[in-house]
Amino acid sequence: MSDNINNISGLSTADLLNNNTKTTSKNSGVDFAKELKSAINETNALQEDKENAIADLATGQVKDLHQAAMAIGKAETSMKLMLEIRNKALNAYKEISRTQL
Fold first, then answer.
1. pTM score
2. DSSP characters for 18-40?
3. Residue 36 pLDDT greater than 60, yes or no
4. 3-state DSSP helix/strand/coil percent for the chain, to nearest 5?
């Protein structure tokens, strides 16, 4: 997921003002739904790794305690990020639905 975030390039105000053409998702080459699904799948994989690490800790089969702690930390951070994205999307939806036409 962090690789996807690093690939996002910023736009300055001048770039936005100079761009008079409308861009669509087909022209930009990035499909939001695909990126979101990829991020969700990656979060799910990290959660599964965390569950395996916790199971290994509980059964005493852990080989490296540091790696288990890292897997748990990554899963926690990823889940927090996905929850924040969900919250922002819901807030945006609510704001749009309150807009009067």
1. 0.62
2. H--S---HHHHS--HHHHHHHHH
3. yes
4. 75, 0, 25
